[in-house]
Amino acid sequence: MKKYLSFFVVAGLLLAVSVAGAENDRENKERPEWNKTTQGERRGFTVEQKEAREAFRAEIDTERKIFHDSLKADRQAFQAELKSAKEEFKQAREERKEEFKNNAKNMIGERFEVAVRNLERMQERIGDLIDVVAEDETKDTALAEELLELSKTILNEAKEKIEDIKDLIPEEGEEVTPEIFEQIKLAARDAKNLLKESHRALIDSLKTIKALKNEDDDDEEDDDEDED
């Protein structure tokens, strides 16, 4: 009886090993096909990513053009209004002219220079975000970096325009002529528009970073679907 029991135990072990071996062979045969399918899906997703990024860049470019055209139209309208304002300024009393001079100084210190500092802080923070995203070599941060550099370039132009306004403001005791009034007003509008453009480029850079981070969410969803 013990001999029979030993036989059945050994036979059972051999059968288990045989079944396990057959199962492994079957998995090894099927796995290459599964890998091939997965790689194909990944390649397809990479193409989709590239197309999505190109579409996003085109969208950003279109929005920037619309924004720039809007600023240009506003400037032209402002120039038309400025002509009549200049004529009125010719008839203004000295008190009004002195008030305008003081307002121009306050505008530079309280509005423009504060806006410049805020934009510089934002640029630094967005630069840090880009560095974090760029640690993933699969992420193309070129557009985000390009927009950040554009923001910095435009901000430098705004700084130069602000310095021009400072130079235009007459010293104490000097008169503000209608011509100077016109130049200051137009330069102030240009500085304001440049600050807006710099800020817009930063917003677009941030949108680009968010779009890249959203790709991770898409990857996770695809991985979950593969597991299912």
UniProtKB/TrEMBL annotation:
Q: Would the keyword NADP be found if you checked this record's keyword annotation?
A: no
- Write down the superkingdom of origin: Bacteria
Coiled coil ranges (UniProt) are 68-110, 148-175
Instruction: Check the UniProt entry and state the signal peptide residues, or none.
Output: 1-22
Q: Does the keyword Signal apply?
A: yes
Q: Where is this region: Disordered?
A: 22-43
Where does this protein have compositionally biased stretches of type Basic and acidic residues? 23-43
Keywords per UniProt: Coiled coil, Signal
Q: What is this protein called?
A: DUF5667 domain-containing protein
| The organism's taxonomic lineage, starting at the top | Bacteria, Candidatus Nomuraibacteriota
